[in-house]
Design a protein that fits this description.
Length: about 260
């Protein structure tokens, strides 16, 4: 069972407390949304879970073992992070870029084989970039760069996806297509997905659990149906929020 356990996790940025003793268990088959105002610490939380930023205190367990007990290769086989922005200056093609997602699974001193190539082309096909496989990655638009980064992450095939603003630079159609893709992996492959988003209604639609980062280290976490309320969101955003019924459940709008 894929499981990420946070035990009294406290994270600081300088003198600011972003998370104070956050305790929660996140499991395979679940999709967690992370919501918060600008600067609340959404990105820092994801980077801490990925082992890229040190926590101040507390423990993070990946499948029952502390993340410090894993090598970087072992971590990359189990956990993948989508960064918020992607600017490629390396002169590689789209196919060469997406092949990088296979590197955690390739033994040392070995090259990509036919199976890695097949998986890479499949990942590009899933995000609609297979026809661009020979194009330079530096020539892609912002939305295409985002889809390439997502394809590379899919090619990495981790147990846990940490997504920092996965809808960045994507038009509405691509947003829904990409989030549908991750939702299907969570459901069909028992993956764990944790995504930081600005759009509360995308969280409502795709996430069955949510963490609200309220500022000053305070947070509320749990099932989306229980945590996403007009009262909690008013507190989160500092602006009155209303709830209306929509075709996919409640919709939240500013008053």
């Amino acid at each position: 069972m894929t499981e990420l356990t946070l035990q009294a996790l406290t994270i600081r940025r300088g003198t600011r407390v972003l998370s104070h003793e956050l305790t929660q268990t996140l499991q395979g088959g679940e999709c967690w949304g992370v919501l918060g105002a600008n600067g609340a610490g959404k990105t820092t939380l994801l980077h801490t879970l990925a082992g890229l930023y040190p926590d101040d205190s507390g423990t993070i367990l990946l499948n029952g073992s502390t993340v410090e007990g894993y090598s970087r290769r072992q971590m990359a086989q189990r956990l993948g992070l989508l960064f918020q922005s992607h600017e490629s200056s390396f002169p590689a093609t789209v196919l060469e870029t997406v092949l990088q997602g296979r590197h955690p699974h390739i033994p040392s001193w070995k090259w990509e084989d036919a199976d890695d190539l097949k998986k890479s082309l499949s990942a590009l096909r899933q995000v609609g970039l297979d026809a661009m496989q020979n194009r330079s990655a530096t020539k892609l638009s912002g939305g295409e760069q985002q889809r390439l980064a997502i394809a590379t992450l899919l090619n990495q095939a981790p147990e846990i996806y940490l997504l920092d603003e996965p809808s960045n630079h994507l038009d509405l159609h691509q947003q829904i297509k990409i989030l549908d893709l991750f939702a299907a992996q969570v459901k069909e492959q028992n993956k764990l997905c944790v995504m930081a988003l600005h759009d509360v209604n995308l969280v409502q639609r795709y996430c069955d659990h949510v963490i609200l980062m309220l500022g000053e280290g305070n947070s509320i976490s749990g099932k989306t149906s229980e945590v996403l309320t007009a009262e909690n969101l008013t507190r989160l955003y500092g602006h009155p929020m209303l709830v209306v019924e929509g075709p996919h459940g409640p919709l939240f709008v500013p008053r």
